């Protein structure tokens, strides 16, 4: 399963965000790995952060809920969320807005 | 090697672009495969087309030049290019604007 999503990066935090992501905390990476996330990249286009990841578990929502309960991840998000503005259309969505796939070639 | 890039989709072509990409011509897909491109997805965010692909050849520029010489691909681009506005910053860049990666987790 492939997941692409976007969030807005507040321009005043661009350099700080980039530097922070050069050395993401090992606990945060471990929580993602434990949640069956792999091949996870984040790209920057203007003020837009674009993420692409692959998920090979059985229950994406449940695994993402587990990531959200991880204590290190919560501390990480306390730092990164204020650097961002969510582009979700309703509160029921995640912080990052998920994008529709219009093409795929294996 | 991972490549993410963006191009603007002219809003009046949104539906046509989506439908066209539900059945990309086999020759176009074959040219990409022959150029060592795999795991290629395109996502839509507003008017922005976001592509992600993986390349496992030895010379990306040369392989992309070969794709650009492919006759079916040229006909395909004659249809799709007018649906798009390039976001490249100079003519020396490709039609799609390549994005910097700010994070990656294998």
- Tell me the number of structural domains of chain A: 1
Return the string of H and E elements of chain A. EHHEEHHEEE
Tell me the β content of chain A: 25-35%
Which class do the helix and strand fractions of chain A yield? alpha+beta
Total number of beta strands of chain A: 6
Low-confidence stretches of chain A: none
Give the termini distance of chain A in whole angstroms: 12 Å
Average of pLDDT of chain A: 97
Q: Return Rg of chain A in Å.
A: 14 Å
Structure notes:
The structure is a homodimer of 106-residue chains. Chain A has 106 residues and is an alpha+beta fold. Chain A has four helices and six strands; from the N terminus they run βααββααβββ. Chain A has one domain (2-99): 2-Layer Sandwich (Alpha-Beta Plaits), CATH 3.30.70.100. The model of chain A has no long low-confidence stretch (mean pLDDT 97). Strand 6 (101-105) of chain A pairs antiparallel with strand 2 of chain B, so a sheet runs across the interface.
